[in-house]
Amino acid sequence: MAKTLDTLLLGKHYNGIEFFSVNNEEKIAFLQVEKKKDNLDISKNEIFNDRDTLFKAKNKLPTVIILNNGNVLQKEVQFSDSNDKKLVNKAFPNLQLEDFYYEIWRTGSGALVAICRKSYVDGLISSLKEHFKIARISLGLCSLDSMMSFTIPDTITTNTHTITPQGDTLIQTGVNSPIIMEINGLSIENNYILSFGGILGLFLFRNTNGSIQQINDFLLEDFKQGSFYEIGLKSGIGLMLGILLLNFIAFSYYFDKANAADEAIALNKAGIETIVKLREKIKNKELALNGISDHSISRRSLLLNSIAQGIPSTVSLSGLTYNPLEKKVREDEAILFQEKQLIIEGTTLSNEDFSNWIAALEKLPDIKKVTIANFGKNAEGETYFLLKAIVK
Fold first, then answer.
1. Looking at the domain assignment, is residue 18 inside a domain?
2. pTM higher than 0.85, yes or no?
3. Residue-range definition of the domain harbouring residue 388
């Protein structure tokens, strides 16, 4: 269920952007793909010479950044170990690890280690986040790791290297002319092969090896939270409009009935009692359907916005109901709501974050009290909770 929700939040379109250097010139390879059923199809690809031109292609799609320029050092080691730090020290002795992000592509008996200063990576993310929704970072050639379980050519050519994954030496420097390669039946230009590998890793939810995974966890969670908020906001607006439409339809329906009853009064005095009861029913329906005023809608929107902004990264919501129905709606009965109540459902990965979040909810100006109605493991083994909040 969690993976299905993550897939929904990511959507069906993805960006891949590779920053690379050729002959001391900075280039940018931009790739956009679309998910169709279980396949990825290329919808757009272009080489840019500077960031300003790249920014013209800005969008809100999940974006993978590939750093493959002069700020990234990568080295192949004929040595394999499950300990990432041992491999990094083997490739780059005496490296100050706290100053660098590193990523490792294990290739059987050896490994490719790529490093980049944290200050450069963090600065690049800061400059790009106003134009693209970054969900993943990969260093050097390491994004190709996500392709190794698929049908690939014996030799892969990128913008900067020629790679023979099955050969004795993984990296051969040198750049060839642009070519078309087949990756599991998909034709793709080699200029965009690293970007495609990064997108494939995001699409398959594959973890990277090395300290780069720490920032990738943060980026992906931040993207999912933003996407969840946007989807929730649009759904909330749609729900409000639907309620208003139902209000209009119900009012028109009962209004027409009332007019018909007024005409019947002139013809039959005996129907006065029935008409009075019908008008009373109309009044009750109008009061129930008009319970959502412009003022309450605005106030509820602000409250839901405050709740959404304070959700910790370890908490995932599955339900948020304002003024739930007191019982199922039945014909000829008034629609009754549990006034000034808010039901919040979801799962949490951290009890401490969950407790702090509840304390923060109770401090919101419009929240009077928060009660834990249910808390424990669900069928999937996740920590499930159900909160009932009393709204002022």
1. yes
2. no
3. 310-392
